[in-house]
């Protein structure tokens, strides 16, 4: 047998034998071998075990089978409690096939009978050398493998088929040690579920058993409550057990929960400000409550600053000391700083952030310890503040998300206040316009009626073409008055809406319009939610416009005259020649609405942008108000309207963003 190569010297051997003389002979014989042996002896198993407890520098144990206090195999079992792989050679004079079989079954490294002569020590030296070489090689491989495991970002451990831990890296050791009830020291060799009773019956327990039974990999994410940790786990089974890889994804879950929470807040805020049935005050109260919940503060207020007064306009708090309508000097509030700087004020701890500030006692009176507020603007001037404050100072400052949320809320309040103010001004202007139109029409009609009466008397007494011209001028003035009234009243708010059958209404409108030889083609079965009288006026104006300007005998120029004067068209309808080429008006559906078109000469592209202007007309007799009225009726409903080319080359008016019967129901 060739000599084993021992890379590291010396080889420390512990020889255990009750025969001290033979033990000395073994020590001296091995010392003469070429391999560098350092032999220590022990007279019995207990002394040997004591040596192992005190020293970890033994590379190989050589033991007699018959020991004073036990057998070599019993001693071997005790050694395995210290080390699962330390080389152990049974070197005995009491050899038998039974002992040899038991030794092999027990797992001893080698079995060797004592013989006469010195050759046996050479054999023993070779066996020791081979065993130690294998032992050191396995330890080196294991060390390298463990180093690889420890460098892994994931925690890793493996169990055998009996659920005993066979190997694990440092990451897994840290987690498993924290999860186990007691500090049990070495984890290798421990029964996984006995050491982790809290995990029995959990998803971890079920998935590991599933992988073991089905011999199929499993992956899952699960929360382990005892460690307050989320894990991403991958389990790979084999015939000998399981390999488990896992990583801590708690931060990922917290980020996900945080994003979901923020999405929920923004969705709730959208639902609040989109609720048309709520008043502005109710909406602000709901937004303040939402902000209080998200920021964890006791107070939320929308306040107006008027001169030196700070007026609580809307209040959200459980503190009855503060009510909407209360007024305090603005100088005693933190909001003064916010309004003066015209930017968001963030105070996580007022006692520190406001150091050196005098004349401010809001914090003392109400126990305010933290503050987050943003200015509210109307017409580019500071209207007041939208703010939140609490009674507990913050360990950290308000987060960027919290500051952004309050900024967003304050901007909505600013926009809504601005919109309300603008609407109030528009309503006041419209009321004045309506009053003016009524007064003007009344004052103009009185002298017109007198003049018309005198013309009729004059026409009865004589025939004069000048009188006919005056009558036509009076008709023209009356048309202007009626259209001005219609245009002014179109600014009024759309009335109650109802379900309107578009086809039926179109047929009814056609019957009331002087159409001559023109024809109507209805290609819709759509039902709309609309103010029926206003929709009727819209359709009649478009139909008159098409009939008047679609007939070739009524074209004063190649362009399509873009007006539809209600009263004027009735008086001028007699001028439509019955024998002229007729026009077809079509009413049909488009996505999200309907259209009205004709097959007349159409509207040139460069005129389409101005057809709804009140001054636009291509007829000397026209007022230019007809299509302006159409546009205002459409916008009053919240519809969109555009002009394009019809399918037959004529004018086409498309109305979209319309609530149909399926949407209304």
Total tally of structural domains: 5
Beta-strand share of residues? 15-25%
Tally of helical runs: 20
Largest sheet, in brief, is: 6 strands, antiparallel
By CATH, the topology of the largest domain is Heat Shock Protein 90
Kindly name the structural category. alpha+beta
Terminal CA distance: 98 Å
The helix content, as a percent range, equals 40-55%
Number of strands: 23
The main sheet orders its strands as 13-12-11-16-15-14
- Shape call: elongated
Walk me through the structure.
With 665 residues, this protein is α+β, with helices and mostly antiparallel strands. The protein has five domains: 138 residues, Rossmann fold; 97 residues, Beta-Lactamase (2-Layer Sandwich); 158 residues, GAF domain (Beta-Lactamase), CATH 3.30.450.40; 64 residues, Helix Hairpins, CATH 1.10.287; 171 residues, 2-Layer Sandwich (Heat Shock Protein 90), CATH 3.30.565.10. Helices cover 45% and strands 21% of the residues. A six-stranded antiparallel β-sheet has the order 13-12-11-16-15-14, with helices on both faces. Strands 2-1-3-4-5 form a five-stranded parallel β-sheet, with helices on both faces. α3 links the parallel β3 and β4. α2 packs parallel to α3 and α10 runs antiparallel to α14. The N terminus is likely disordered.
Question: In short, what is this structure?
Answer:
The chain is of the alpha+beta class and 665 residues long. Helices cover 45% and strands 21% of the residues.
């Amino acid at each position: 047998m060739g000599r084993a190569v021992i890379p590291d010297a010396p080889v420390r051997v512990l020889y255990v034998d009750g025969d001290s003389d033979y033990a000395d002979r073994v020590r001296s014989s091995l010392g003469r071998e070429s391999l560098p042996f350092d032999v220590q002896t022990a007279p019995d198993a207990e002394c040997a075990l004591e040596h192992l407890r005190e020293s970890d520098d033994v590379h190989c144990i050589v033991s007699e089978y018959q020991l004073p206090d036990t057998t070599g195999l019993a001693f071997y079992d005790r050694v395995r409690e210290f080390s699962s792989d330390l080389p152990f050679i049974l070197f005995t004079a009491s050899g038998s096939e039974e002992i040899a079989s038991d030794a092999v079954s027990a797992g001893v490294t080698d079995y060797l009978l004592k013989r006469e002569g010195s050759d046996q020590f050479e054999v023993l030296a070779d066996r020791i050398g081979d065993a130690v070489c294998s032992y050191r090689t396995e330890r080196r491989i294991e060390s390298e493998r463990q180093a690889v495991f420890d460098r892994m970002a994931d925690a890793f451990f493996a169990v055998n088929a009996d659920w005993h831990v066979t190997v694990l890296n440092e990451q897994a050791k840290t987690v498993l040690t924290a999860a186990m009830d007691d500090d049990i020291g070495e984890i290798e060799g421990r029964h996984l579920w006995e050491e982790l009773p809290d995990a029995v019956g959990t998803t971890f327990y079920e998935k590991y058993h599933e992988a073991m039974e089905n011999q199929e990999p499993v992956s899952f994410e699960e929360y382990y409550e005892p460690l307050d940790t989320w894990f991403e786990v991958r389990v790979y089974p084999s015939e000998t057990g399981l390999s488990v890889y896992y990583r801590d994804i708690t931060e990922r879950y917290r980020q996900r929960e945080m994003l979901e929470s923020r999405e929920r807040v923004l969705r709730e805020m959208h639902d609040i400000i989109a609720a048309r049935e709520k008043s502005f005050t109710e909406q602000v109260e709901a937004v303040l409550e939402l902000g209080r919940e998200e920021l964890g503060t006791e107070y939320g207020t929308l306040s107006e600053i008027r001169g030196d007064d700070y007026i609580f306009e809307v209040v959200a708090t459980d503190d009855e000391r503060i009510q909407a309508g209360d007024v305090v000097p603005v100088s005693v509030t933190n909001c003064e700083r916010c309004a003066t700087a015209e930017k968001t004020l963030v105070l996580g701890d007022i006692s520190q952030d406001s150091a050196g500030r005098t004349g401010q006692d809001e914090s003392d009176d109400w126990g305010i310890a933290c503050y987050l507020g943003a200015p509210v603007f109307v017409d580019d001037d500071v209207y007041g503040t939208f703010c939140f404050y609490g009674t507990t100072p913050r360990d950290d400052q308000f987060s960027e998300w919290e500051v952004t949320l309050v900024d967003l809320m304050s901007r909505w309040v600013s926009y809504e206040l601005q919109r309300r103010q603008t609407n109030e001004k528009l309503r006041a202007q419209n009321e004045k316009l309506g009053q003016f139109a009524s007064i003007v029409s009344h004052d103009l009609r009185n002298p017109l009626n007198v003049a018309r009466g005198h013309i009729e008397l004059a026409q009865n007494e004589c025939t004069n073409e000048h009188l006919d011209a005056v009558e036509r001028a009076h008709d023209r003035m009356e048309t202007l008055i009626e259209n001005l009234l219609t245009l002014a009243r179109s600014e009024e708010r759309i009335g109650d809406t109802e379900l309107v059958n578009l086809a039926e209404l179109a047929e009814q409108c056609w019957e009331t319009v002087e159409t001559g030889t023109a024809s109507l083609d209805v290609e819709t079965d759509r039902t709309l939610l609309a103010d029926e009288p206003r929709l009727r006026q819209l359709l009649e104006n478009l139909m008159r416009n098409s009939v008047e300007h679609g007939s070739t005998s009524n074209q004063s120029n190649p362009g399509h005259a873009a007006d539809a004067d209600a009263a004027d068209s009735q008086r001028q309808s007699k001028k439509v020649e019955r024998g002229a080429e007729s026009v077809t008006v079509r009413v049909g559906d488009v996505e999200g609405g309907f259209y009205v078109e004709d097959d007349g000469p159409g509207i040139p592209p460069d005129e389409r942008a101005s057809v709804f202007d009140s001054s636009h007309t291509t007829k000397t007799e026209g007022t230019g108000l007809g299509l302006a009225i159409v546009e205002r009726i459409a916008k009053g409903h919240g519809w969109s309207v555009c002009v394009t080319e019809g399918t037959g080359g004529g004018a086409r008016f498309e109305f979209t963003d319309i609530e149909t019967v399926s949407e209304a129901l």
